[in-house]
Amino acid sequence: MTVTENISIAFNAIRSNLLRAVLTLLIIAFGIMALVGILTSIDAMKNSLTSNFASMGTNTFNVIRKGTGLGGGRRGRRSNVGEKITYKQALSFKEKYQYPAAVSMSALGSMSTVAKRGSVETDPNTTVYGADENYLDVAGYKLAAGRNITALESEAGRNMVIIGAAIAEKLFENYTNLTILGKTISIRNIQFTVIGVMEEKGSSMTFNGDKMVLIPLQTLRKYFGSQTDSYNLSVMVTDALNIDPAMAEAEGVFRRVRKTKIGEDSDFELEKSDGLISLIVDNTATLQVAAIFIGLITLLGAAIGLMNIMLVSVTERTREIGICKSLGATRRTILVQFLVEAIVICQIGGLVGIVFGILAGNGVTFMVGGAFVIPWAWIALGFSLCFVVGIISGLYPAVKASRLDPIEALRYE
Questions:
Q1: Are the beta carbons of 130 and 221 closer than 8 angstroms?
Q2: Whole-angstrom Cα distance, residue 390 to residue 280?
Q3: Which residues cross the membrane (predicted)?
């Protein structure tokens, strides 16, 4: 018989025992759904994070407190957290760092603030960030309209604000970016004049740049100073090839700023944006291996269940097998028939599982602000695993069916 005929016979066998076949393929489907769903959500989150870090460019690096970076807790170990970076230390570094690069000072004021305009207000998830004149360029943000904060305005602490795209859309109905400029919004009942609107940037799983407002650094110190834990320093060199000497220079300057003695370990860290991307990829690779292992365990249980169903099917169809053999069917024909039936059940279950896995994985991704992903690699993996499971589960029952004695099989009641 041809492969097409075997597949047709397999579908007939499935229809004749529909409930049992459906329950069996659902076991396969849930295993594949768990596998593809987890891997899809990991991929989507990884893409979201890497795109956000990549937007900063490969020519930027950050000076941060020791033990607070993404690499601070690798392999279950976290370094002791260093002293916070004070405003004076950050300002001193910016003044003393003479390497040809742009240095940005910034600080987080709050991640749970409400911005208002008249009776219209945002949800209480607006992020208030204090920034200097270099922050937009170093962080990879672009203005859709308006202008940046100047160095004088940053030092003077004036009440002006640059708002994200989502804030503009929420507070100004039927707006154009130019009509927003010069308007006033309030944050914690403090009036701020809008001087710029940022282009839509999108969100990662932990941060949404479109729901952020930027105010001058001194203004942040005046109104949100008590909530500022530590100041951030970011450096952008003109050429990515110069980033290593720039980092070496930055480490020496900041050691002098922190008054770190010779021989003592630095209580701060320098992180490159491409280094963060590599770290994300490494960590997600570990998660992917763990997800595949969990999925394989689930599929092992499904394989055992399918093998049991196929053995029951062989027993129920013993007389049918005897008739086929008496009409000239060879052992190979019977073996292939039952093996194809097991593979068909697995592939149908795999198809259902892949569809639901993609939906489940992207559902998680949507909740954390990521983009929709079609995981072609994991789809191929799912189908491949289903094929392997079908062969493993169906091989023994198929061999058993092919070895039945036709005379004894015809006598079977």
A1: yes
A2: 35
A3: 21-42, 289-314, 334-360, 372-396
Please give the angle made by the CA atoms of 340, 341 and 342, to the nearest 5 degrees. Answer: 90
Paired tokens of 135: 């922050």
Three-state secondary structure call for residue 76: helix
Is residue 90 predicted with pLDDT exceeding 90? yes
Q: Any residues with CB less than 8 A from the CB of 162 and at least 6 apart, and which?
A: 136, 143, 146, 148, 149, 194, 195, 196, 197, 198, 213, 214, 215
> Which of these, 214, 236, 208, 244, lies nearest to 62 by C-alpha position?
236
Q: What pLDDT, in 10s, does the model give residues 319-377?
A: 888 888 888 878 888 888 888 888 888 888 889 888 988 888 888 777 766 667 788 88
Q: Which of 269, 236, 265, 243 is nearest to 64 (CA)?
A: 269
d(CA 144, CA 148): 11
Q: Return the structure tokens found at 197.
A: 């609107």
pLDDT tens per residue, range 103-148: 999 999 988 899 999 889 999 989 999 999 999 988 888 899 999 9
First-residue to last-residue Cα distance in the chain: 27
Opening angle at CA 361, ends 358 and 367, nearest 5: 130
Instruction: Supply 337's token pair.
Output: 């028939």
Give the span between the Cα atoms of 136 and 143, in whole angstroms. Answer: 8
Q: Does residue 408 contact residue 342 with C-beta atoms inside 8 Å?
A: no
Determine the Cα–Cα distance for residues 62 and 237; give it in Å rounded to an integer. 12
- pTM, two decimal places: 0.58
Residue 237's DSSP bridge partners are 101
- Tokens matching residue 358: 């993609």
